[in-house]
């Protein structure tokens, strides 16, 4: 029977569509990367999504974040993403958390309930905690490495963290995971040498320098991640 996911099911089959409808995915970070992950997962027919982010839409988000418009400035990103998701698929189950994910807030989440976890957050400590929690729960995770200060979306690739190079964030994560004796973590990263951004008047707590960004790199990373999640879930 014809439905809003019929074109997708021409590629993945009815059973593939049913698998997606039964799946629950957690997306940590609903920014430039995570917002596009959510968009693609909802349009693909994922049945349940947990959205985690404590940030609100700001003027400087308009150049790259799908949740950002002049009408949404000042609203929580998770609330905007939920509203948009239900406009696309009224039947999707959404659970939102206005939470800044860190080791101190990890106990708010039962990772065993997820079929897949997406890491689209910025902090190293948060990323490492997400990886540790998913490993304990035996849940697959895919992590976004550095998308800021980049101009070439075509250079991003999916690989194991152990095989990454050039990306400064991937280097830090790789070293920290080695200390923790954690192996086999899927990431999306680029070998593009990051550009040095110009000085900015904008101030963000915890960041010495504001990274440059654009409309096409974070979105591309988000769509790459969503594609990997979809392919993994229908292959189970």
Radius of gyration: 17 Å
Globular, elongated, flat, extended or rod-shaped: what is the shape? globular
The CATH superfamily title: NAD(P)-binding Rossmann-like Domain
**CATH fold-level topology:** Rossmann fold
Tally of helical segments: 6
- Helix proportion: 25-40%
Structural class: alpha/beta
Topology readout:
Blueprint: H1 6-21, E1 24-28, H2 34-44, E2 48-52, H3 77-88, E3 93-97, E4 116-119, H4 124-137, E5 141-144, E6 156-160, H5 168-179, E7 186-190, H6 217-234
Helix pairs in contact: 2-3, 2-6
Describe the structure.
By secondary structure, this protein is an alpha/beta fold. The protein has a single domain, classed as NAD(P)-binding Rossmann-like Domain (Rossmann fold), CATH 3.40.50. Helix content is 35%, strand content 14%. It has helices at residues 6-21, 34-44, 77-88, 124-137, 168-179, 217-234; strands at residues 24-28, 48-52, 93-97, 116-119, 141-144, 156-160, 186-190. Strands 3-2-1-4-5-7-6 form a seven-stranded mixed sheet, with helices on both faces. β2 (48-52), α3 and β3 form a beta-alpha-beta unit. α2 packs parallel to α3 (77-88). It starts with 5 loop residues before the first helix and ends with a helix.
Name its key features:
single chain; 236 residues; alpha/beta; Rossmann fold; 7-stranded mixed β-sheet; 6 helices; 7 strands; 35% helix; globular
The gist of it:
With 236 residues, this protein is α/β, with parallel strands linked by helices.
